[in-house]
Amino acid sequence: MEFEIESPKNITELCKTIKSYRSKSFRFGAGYTDLLMELKKHTPRNLTVINLAQLKDVSFSSIRSTTKNIQIGAMITASKLVTDTRIEQLFPVLQQAAHNLASTQIRQVATLGGNMCTASPSGDLICAAMALQASCEIMNDDKKIHNLSIQDFFIGVRKTALKKNEFLFAINIPRNKKRTATLHSGFIKIGTRKSMECSVVSLAFHLQIDKTGKIIDAGIAIGASAPTVKFAQSACQFLIGKKINSFSEKEKEEFANKVLSYASPISDIRATAWYRKEVLFNISKGVLE
Amino acid sequence: MSKKLKIIGTPVPKHDAKMRTTGEAIYGHDIKLPNMLYGAILRTQHPHAEFIIDVSEAKKLPGVVCIITADDVDTNHIGYKRDHPILKKNEANCTRDEIAAVAAETKEIAQEALKLIKVKYKVKKGLYNPHDALKKNVPQINKFSSGKFENKNIAEKFFYEHGNLEQEKKNSVAIVKRKFTLPRMTHACMATSNITAHYTKTNGKLLLYSSTQVPFLYQRDMAHALKMNPSDIRIIQPIIGGGFGSKLDMHPFEPICALLSIKTGKPVQILYSREEEFIASPTRQPMEIELTAGVDKNGNFTFREIEIIKDNGAYTSWGATTPFVIMQAFSSLYKIKACRFNALAVYTNNVFAGSFRGYGNPQATFALERVIDLLADEIGMDKAEIRLRNANTKGEITGQGLHYDTCGHKECLQTVIKKLKVEKKKVEKNNRFKRGIGYASMLHVGGGAKIYRSDGCGTTLKIDPYGFCTIITGSNEIGQGSETVLAMIAAEELGIELSKIKVINTDTDVKPWDVGVHASRTSFVAGNSLLGAINILKEKLNNKAAKLLNEKTKSFTYENGNIISPSNQQIALDKVVREMHFTEPNELAIASYFYEPSSKFQDKDFKGNVSGTYAFASQSISVEVDTYTGNVQVLDIHVAQDVGKVLNPLLLDGQIHGGILQGVGYALTEELIFKDGELLNPNFHNYKMLTAADVPNIHFYPVETNDKQGPYGAKGVGEAPLIPTAAAIANAVCNALDIEIVELPITPERVLKAIAEKKNNKKNK
Q1: Shared-domain flag, residues B761 and B642
Q2: Mean pLDDT, rounded, for A141-149
């Protein structure tokens, strides 16, 4: 495992570094929990790692409130997401996803941006962010920022829409609706053990409910069930306008089938496609129980 | 023991605990010798292939000092059946096969050199299923096997029987027959395999820093492999980071490292990466067990008939001999009137297993205890009651000839049944989460196991003129805490404080013979050996003390560094030693003793009292199963174990907790997954060892039966805690869901499948 390393200290230096490596092979390194594993298996020759861990800009590693959004810097660690009280109150789904990630030790260094940009179909933070209908704030090496919806950010297994001169700067999560009285929000991770687990299937849900018990907004996303994390649009629409406590058994199954329609899982060493579908149906139903 | 004990029975922390936890401990990986080279092994790319190898390019790489292939060495085959070439020539037969080895100046150069070795493979279709390997017209997998059996791919066979099987079948009101499939599980020692070899050309002596569990057998095996004199080989054991049986066999990388050192005349070190550890270290023996068992109208067990097919892999290790232990469980756990046992170890192109804590017993116990539940269901008897009715008892001599001089089986069962009953009241069932309970017991050797000509252990004991004591013991420490227990025994008997007791146990040139760490034997055998040496030394010390104190008595007590007479005259122990050394007749305060347990070699029919004593244990386990996901959560594990006598409650708890967690892993998650001979999960990511977050509540109740053979009454404890765990968990899951489980591990997917099958069966009915 041999590579060069560049450690820019701020955004300006980062952009300069990216520019200077435009024609060379480089990778970004943030928490290194995925990258080192990958490079240990195979390190391409003449690789440079642009190390983001030394960036001093607060915007990279803070959680900020705006009128419409909560903005989360890409270098926020999973453990920060676990302990932040705003995340806990506003977006339990994200807090739970972060809490279920790997182990206590890994959560200290693993970053939101790393999880997003690795673009694994089983990325837990991706799944939660998608249920929250977040958007991605992308910066290029001219410091220009543009926004991309989270669904468009992922284009395949371990593939994002990022161009070579772009990096993920932050994600924006829209605030919950004003009429929202309660939340039914959570992250279900399926695996064989309680920590150090890579999701066999995951389900993120964020339902906003008004004071009459009516669902006024819904976000459902599934992980490890398709080449990318999927937003279950029709399942969300099915829920909106219905009362959270009034679902019949048939409706629950209808909802579960709608979620399942977004799944096209594979069989691999961790589970068969059969199991993934079976369990996804069951836990989807469970969301409404 | 009538005498009041001061140290034995107290929670003395492991004497090396601080050293190990702070990083001061020197493991094999920390050894660095002057001019040391780094060894690396090239393994076959295909589990079964013919190959031609060309190392010429690799040899040219600067920094490469030596490369060896089968053509460069003159060695004997290794392994329990001597059917295993150290370096393979022309043909690879399993994914681990070593085909070349490099010694280089750095680890990186050694790895680079491996890539430059050119190998042309002609891939062949392998036999990965023992049933296929037993068919006619298939090739002989191991060309070096004895060939003494009717089928060329049978590596080993076992047959045992007692009682009148046919009659007992007639006496049965219910008979159950099931086939069980058991997976490969790996030890996953925290320290990966390692060895440093240092051959001195000028005198032809070979020094090995090795993590073996059995240094004297290893010395003999190494000498045989390398065609050397055993006494020219000195084994030093660095601190060992986990054994669990994995270091009972000598593995090819060890003589390979020695060969590289012999060829280069320099020290050579081989360290496994974690991936290599998964691929190339031994596993628990996978097998199919077909068990037929019966019960009479009163609920008494009548007979057991067992057919076992073991996947031996391409070569034969100690793992092939696990039926020694498996048949004990079937012949002698619970009272059983008749038993017939057949086991085959069949060569395949899979990796070979080795010995693993429990030595076949977890597999046997899983089958046996599952069938007990089914028999209870058949006759409508309570599952606790059927076990209590058939439990083993003190004084029993089993069909196989095991003598239960002490036996805590019934007490263990009663304890765990009672404890779980209290909990059962709390159990609630709802639609999604189902709860269940399960029981299982186990029997295991508790006083060594006579599988070698001697099951003995030697001790040399000395006290120096400063009153410090050195125990030179043949036994060794692999993390189980034997050094601490031995020091406690010496402290108890000699009245010397623990900080003044040293244990020397790592050097075959220094220590007396011992068969090694296995069969939960160390506290029992090495403890008795030490007590024997203490008695001899005390006689000498008593004589001198009597002279110095002008006492007629030879009966002294030893306390707080003093030797005290019945009339309360006392003299410092160190003073007595100095007087022994420095006044006439000038003798050393030293004694040696060799302890041989009373056990007997079994006869050709596998009958005989193979151990000094036997350990029993029972577990009752409650689980909650999520029927939506198939996940099994183990809630509470109650374990009662007949330990003879608690020597150190802290270390005992460590063994219980560690063993049980290994058992839970065996039950629920741990499995090496192979496809056509290749390992698909050589990492902790996909080999699912449990984590701290998965630990259930463990409640331990030691049962003391005070065996007269054991040191202070103690029995072996190390393997027992993991043996019944998987069986009890499986019983609890079946109880929760009303399904059948015939395969481990009980993964969430297998649980959901079983639930789906049950639904389908209902529909079809």
Answers
A1: yes
A2: 97
Q: Which residues of A touch B753 (CB under 8 A)?
A: 275
pLDDT tens, B187-196? 999 999 999 9
Provide the residue range defining the domain that includes A272: 182-287
Residue B122 forms contact with A (CB below 8 Å): no
Q: Specify the length of chain A in residues.
A: 289
Question: How far is A258 from A238, CA to CA, in rounded Å?
Answer: 8
Question: The CATH number of the domain where B634 resides is what?
Answer: 3.30.365.10
Q: What is the residue-averaged pLDDT of chain B?
A: 96
What is the DSSP pairing of strand B301-313 with strand B338-347?
A: parallel
B1 band by pLDDT with thresholds 50, 70 and 90: very low
Per-residue DSSP letters for B484-509? HHHHHHHHHHH---GGGEEEE-SBTT
Separation between Cα atoms, residue B544 and residue B555, nearest integer Å: 12
CB-CB under 8 Å, A193 with B694:
yes
* Chain A contact for B749 (CB, 8 A cutoff): yes
Give me chain A's average pLDDT, please. 96
pLDDT bracket for residue A200 (50, 70, 90)? very high
Same domain, B480 and B544: yes
CB atoms within 10 A of CB B502: 16
**How many domains does the structure of chain A reveal?**
3
Which of A192, A198, A269, A288 to mutate to probe the B interface, most B CBs <10 Å? A192
Q: Tell me the residue range of the domain where B652 lies.
A: 391-397+404-444+611-765
Judged by a CB distance cut-off of 8 A, whether residue B668 touches chain A is yes
pLDDT tens, B426-450?
555 568 999 999 999 999 999 999 9
ipTM above 0.90, yes or no: yes
Cβ distance B673 to A196 less than 8 Å, yes or no, reads no
CB contacts, 8 Å: B752 with chain A = 275, 278-279
* Parallel, antiparallel or unpaired: strands A48-51 and B469-473: unpaired
Asked if B438 and B732 touch (Cβ cutoff 8 Å), the reply is yes
**Given CB atoms, is B432 within the 8 Å cutoff of chain A?**
yes
CATH number of the domain within which A279 lies: 3.30.390.50
Q: Verify whether the Cβ–Cβ distance A272 to B749 is below 8 Å.
A: yes
In a shared domain, residues A189 and A108: no
A190 touches chain B (CB under 8 A): yes
